[in-house]
Amino acid sequence: MSDKYYKLHTIIEENYKLEKFHKIIKALEETIPLYKELVESEKREFGDFSTNYSVALEKGGLIAFAIGEIDLLKKIESELRSIPETQNWADRAKEFIENCEIGNQIINVVSENPGISQLEIKQKIELKDQSEISFIIYWLAKVNRLTRNKYGRSYKLYPKE
């Protein structure tokens, strides 16, 4: 079972480089029922589960938030919360959910204000870490949910049609 997880991990990694986002999401969905067995398998083989990082979750979660797959991210978080050893992974899934929610706010603001600057978005959506908005906008543009055009030291943002 953990072999299947690692095969999906590889599929996500390869398709991330190729920007084949739909394949990443499909593989990410397939990892969900494998988490518990992955933990048990690692515990049997190594005595414990101390993996702090999952390429499948990191790269798959990044694409999932960017394309707005909030239900998938919630399902992942819920599954990870049910496993004591994967609480740090569940926390990361929660961060992707929060980014997805902010991304949806940004899409709404841009739709209501085509040509709004990235700086103006930062004034409308208040976060402690304003660089997070730049990060989210970058990924929304990367997956074609909005258009980002250089404008001086900032960017003008437009909805995708």
Overview of this protein structure:
With 161 residues, the protein is mainly α. It has one domain. It is 68% helix and 9% strand. The protein has helices at residues 2-18, 21-31, 35-46, 55-67, 70-81, 87-112, 118-124, 131-142, and strands spanning 116-117, 146-151, 154-159.
What's the quick description here?
This protein is 68% helix and 9% strand.
Number of strands: 3
Structural class: mainly alpha
Mean pLDDT: 94
How many helical stretches? 8
Provide the β-strand percentage band. 5-15%
Rg, alpha carbons: 17 Å
Main sheet summary: 3 strands, antiparallel
Lateral arrangement of strands in the main beta sheet: 1-3-2
Q: Characterize the overall form.
A: elongated
Q: State the domain count.
A: 1
**Fraction in helix:** 55-70%
Which parts are unreliable, with pLDDT below 50 for 5 consecutive residues or more? Answer: none
Q: What is the distance, rounded to the nearest whole angstrom, between the alpha carbons of the first and last residues? A: 42 Å
- One letter per element, helices H and strands E, the order comes to HHHHHHEHHEE
User: In oligomeric terms, what are we looking at?
Assistant: single chain
List keywords for this structure.
161 residues, mainly alpha, 8 helices, elongated
